[in-house]
Design a protein that fits this description.
Helices cover 36% and strands 14% of the residues. The mean pLDDT is 93. It has 3 domains: 305 residues, FAD/NAD(P)-binding domain, CATH 3.50.50.60; 139 residues, Flavocytochrome C3, Chain A, domain 1 (Alpha-Beta Complex); 114 residues, Up-down Bundle (Methane Monooxygenase Hydroxylase, Chain G, domain 1). It starts with a strand and ends with a helix. The protein is of the alpha/beta class. It has 20 helices and 20 strands. The strands form 5 sheets. Strands 7-3-2-11-18 form a 5-stranded parallel beta sheet. Strands 1-10-9-8 form a 4-stranded mixed beta sheet. α1 runs parallel beside α12, α2 crosses α3 and α6 packs across α16. α1 links the parallel β2 and β3. Bound molecules: flavin-adenine dinucleotide. Flavin-adenine dinucleotide (FAD) binds next to α1, α4, β8 and α12. This is Fumarate reductase/succinate dehydrogenase flavoprotein subunit. Its cofactor is FAD. It comes from Streptomyces sporangiiformans.
């Protein structure tokens, strides 16, 4: 039996971004002793990078806005595949979550009459994004951290210990969710019992025991070569849930943000916020044409301007004009840019032009878009107040994720497991609207923390026990890269040299980018699955040198398991869904099919040890199942015109 430190908590939150911190605050406030664990420095989560704002129907800039309109926009953006109950809760609760942030010390930009200012964003009918310049995520995280510190100060006063009820373990990675077994607890097996972790600096293993675990680890972008995501986004939470027995939902839906930097190569993929278009930026091809007018799909025809003149007038008079097509949902704009480049009308470095310089005076651009101004000035030597940016699609967000119960954020099928934030699936359907992530983090982070605390407090059968056998297995798995030198003793792999984790990662990113990217084809996805199978076998020999003290090669070798699992989910689900919808575009099935609206795709692990996949690589580790979606509640359907519903819903649904 291995000797690893163990600590007991009621709730463990994996991830310290917006979702994780909001969950931790709620769990602690509900009386649960709560631990937060994150693989980056505390305060350095991906949420910090969020730029444009947080969507909430507060109606501060246009009084016509309300939760029903926000709900409608979200469902339209997701092409009606959203878990409608999540979209409803999100639209209803987002304004309260924004107000709550202000009571905790956040300070959003103001309107002239002192209200929280709200800006336009793609797919939102009214100005809806509360913002702090283009650094909204930073303010959000700063405020949540401050709230955590204030709770710790309360605890110090009461117990003499800052960390008695709320403790942060930073720069520590979770590699396994542990579950109790019949032998360990005597109760029904399969409940969550804690997490297995390692400290990145010392390499030391430890276990946090807890009956409730909230996964809030964010996205998967680092499986793709061109991405706006940071190093943390290796799909850990998705993989942890799969390995614990929970299904992933609709993993084929990956959002390619239309505007990432394309030049210079070292910064390719870094995000150019949608606020640039929200504040009047126009997209042009190499012929100087504002091409988005050619790409308004039928389902959106009545809602977008027909001419440049009307689009321009909308900025001054939104009540009497329609919005410009630069503000279509992201999937539409990304596909349009892709098509322009493919048709030979791209910019010199393979993107298109995005120009805000003619819309506002230089000092207003610098004030409203300070990060963008500095980003282009410093990284590309481009002055966006005087010239156009070059931009192109970049892998940005995953709509698919852990399948959860809408109200409680409980992961399906694993008692004690919860999920919130980008790692959870369903809320955004096939395509997320900008700004709807930050609000999602707060709404469902809070709900996850609440229900995790209630679950822990209400355990009738006693606390689940951590099984030593599981801990030993997790430790052995984590140590395997150090013994890859020896390699397998028998079989086809015997005697082969160890693999370099960096090489494997690069090959994975190239595969996903080229074969399961923005436009997908059957033969390419089949080729991707073959390549993933090969990489999976090779990854079992991923070897590292040195020791466990801060060893990034070792960390990457461990992350590879997660990226490979998640990539297989994306590729298998994308191959299965023979239609185009939101963030999933099939060249061989270019239209959106009403029959597919009723179908979710669930990925489950068939081969938890990876042994079968190693001997029969093509078979893979993931099994797909189709599931019929729950019918949308009639009072929510009544928010739409029948003519609109006809475009999305299947015949029987309309009849019902
Ligand atoms: P994160 O904030 O990424 O937090 C994940 C946490 O999990 C981190 O603390 C990480 O260290 C931890 N973690 C991961 N794996 C492990 C592990 N194995 N063990 C322990 N800890 C782990 N959305 C909007 O709504 N509005 C915007 O304006 C906006 N702008 C954006 C700009 C950029 C450049 C990007 C990239 C995204 C933007 N988004 C925006 C999207 C939004 O920022 C993210 O979807 C959101 O922040 C995700 O939050 P989260 O809490 O789910 O995860």
């Amino acid at each position: 039996m291995s000797v690893v430190d163990r600590q007991e908590w009621d709730v463990v939150v994996v991830g310290a971004g917006g979702a994780g911190l909001r969950a931790a605050i709620e769990a602690r406030e509900r009386g649960a002793r709560t631990a937060v664990i994150c693989k980056s420095l505390f305060g350095k989560a991906h949420t910090v990078m969020a730029e444009g704002g947080i969507a909430a129907a507060m109606g501060n800039v246009n009084a016509g806005d309300n939760w029903q309109v926000h709900f409608r926009d979200t469902m339209r953006g997701g092409k009606f595949l959203n878990q409608w109950r999540m979209a409803e809760l999100h639209a209803q609760e987002a304004p309260d979550r924004v107000w709550e942030l202000e009571t905790w010390g956040a300070l959003f930009d103001r309107t002239k009459d002192g209200r929280i200012s709200q800006r336009n964003f793609g797919g939102h009918e009214y100005p809806r994004l509360a913002h702090v310049g283009d650094r909204t995520g930073l303010e959000l995280i700063r405020t949540l951290q401050q709230k955590i510190v204030s709770l710790q100060q309360e605890d110090k006063k009461e117990t003499g210990d800052y960390e008695s009820r709320l403790k942060v373990f930073q720069e520590c990675t979770v590699t396994r969710v542990l579950k109790d077994t019949a032998s360990a607890s005597g109760a029904a097996p399969g409940r969550v019992s804690g997490v297995f972790c390692y400290d990145r600096e010392s390499g030391r293993f430890f276990v946090l025991e807890a009956p409730s675990v909230v996964i809030a680890t964010g996205g998967i972008g680092k499986s793709f070569k061109v991405t706006s995501n940071s190093w943390e986004y290796t799909g850990d939470g998705h993989a942890l849930a799969l390995l614990a027995g929970a299904p992933l939902l609709n993993m084929e839906f990956v959002q390619f943000h239309p505007t990432g930097m394309v030049w210079p190569p070292s910064v390719k993929g870094i995000l150019v916020t949608e606020s640039v278009r929200g504040d009047g930026g126009v997209l042009q091809n190499s012929e100087g044409k504002r091409f988005m007018f050619d790409y308004i799909p039928d389902v959106f025809k009545e809602k977008y301007a027909e001419s440049e003149e009307e689009g321009d007038r909308w900025y001054e008079d939104p009540d009497n004009n329609r919005r410009p097509p630069e503000l279509l949902p992201r999937d539409e704009v990304a596909r349009a840019i892709n098509a322009e480049v493919k048709a030979g009308r791209g910019s010199p470095h393979g993107g298109v032009f995005l120009d805000v310089s003619n819309r506002m005076p230089a000092e207003v651009i610098r004030r409203r878009l300070p990060s963008m101004y500095h980003q282009f000035k410093e990284l590309a030597d481009v002055d966006i107040t005087a010239e156009a940016m070059e931009v192109g699609p970049t892998c940005h967000y995953v709509m698919g994720g852990i399948a959860v119960e809408s109200d409680t954020a409980a992961a399906r099928g694993v008692p004690g497991l919860f999920a919130a934030g980008e790692v959870a699936g369903g809320m955004h359907g096939s395509n997320r609207l900008g700004g709807n992530s930050l609000s999602d983090l707060l709404v469902f982070g809070r709900r996850a923390g609440l229900h995790a605390a209630q679950y822990a407090a209400g355990l009738a059968e006693g606390r689940p026990a951590v099984d030593d056998v599981e801990v030993d297995a997790a430790a052995a798995e984590a140590l395997r890269p150090f013994s890859a030198e020896e390699g397998p003793q028998a079989g086809a792999e015997a005697g082969r040299p160890p693999e370099n984790p960096y090489t494997l990662h690069q090959e994975l990113q190239q595969t996903m980018n080229d074969l399961v990217g923005i436009i997908r084809r059957e033969a390419e996805m089949e080729a991707a699955l073959q390549k993933l199978a090969e990489l999976r076998v090779r990854a079992r020999r991923a070897g590292v040198e040195g020791h466990r003290q801060f060893n990034p090669g070792w960390h990457l070798a461990l992350d590879l398991r997660n990226m490979l699992l998640v990539s297989e989910c994306v590729a298998r689900a994308a191959l299965e869904r023979t239609e185009s919808r939101g963030g999933h575009t099939r060249e061989d099935h270019p239209t959106m099919e009403r029959e597919w609206r009723r179908l979710n795709l669930l990925c489950r692990l068939t081969d938890p040890t990876g042994e079968l996949a190693a001997t029969d690589p093509v078979r893979g580790q993931i099994r797909l199942a189709r599931e019929t979606t729950e019918p949308i509640r009639p009072d929510l359907l009544a928010l739409f015109e029948k003519e609109e519903l006809v475009k999305y819903l299947a015949e029987e649904e309309l009849y019902e």
